[in-house]
Amino acid sequence: MTDIFDVIADGTRRDILQLLLRRTTEGEAGTSVSQIVTDLGISQPTVSKHLKVLRDAELVTVREDGQRRFYSLAVEPLEVVDDWLVPFLVDAFGDDAPNYLYPAGPLPDSAAHAAEVVGRAAASAKHVVATALKRLGA
């Protein structure tokens, strides 16, 4: 599998991922290549080339409907980036980490519930680790 950081290093691929995220939060069940071309103002061959890289990295899924293909964001591979980045934010900001505003809009109910569950689990794990370190005198 391609290194996720190499994949998202390209600005055009990041633009495609952001577009797919935005359209997903707007309730779209997939975005066609022609919609991506129109929205981003880049050529169809360029979009297709970047979508292949994103497919190979499993960052997008594709659904075929006749001659048309509809792409959707697959966020699971981005967890690698999140796992790598979060320690830097925690080290840099601690509990005063900035509250980032995402322009994507509200999450669907199922995603909001999952985020809440994950957030609670992370807070609980942080508390357990902090308590253990205090007991060890670290």
**Tertiary shape:** elongated
Topology order in helix (H) and strand (E) letters: HHEHHEEHH
Give the amount of beta strand, in percent. 5-15%
Helix content: 55-70%
Number of helices: 6
Q: Using only CA atoms, what is the Rg? A: 18 Å
Low-pLDDT windows of residues: none
Biggest sheet overview: 3 strands, antiparallel
State the strand order across the main sheet: 1-3-2
- Which structural class fits the helix and strand makeup? mainly alpha
Nearest-integer average pLDDT = 81
Through-space gap between termini: 39 Å
Number of E-type strands:
3
Topology (SSEs and partners):
Blueprint: H1 4-8, H2 11-25, E1 31-32, H3 33-40, H4 44-56, E2 60-65, E3 68-73, H5 78-93, H6 109-136
Antiparallel strand pairs: 1-3, 2-3
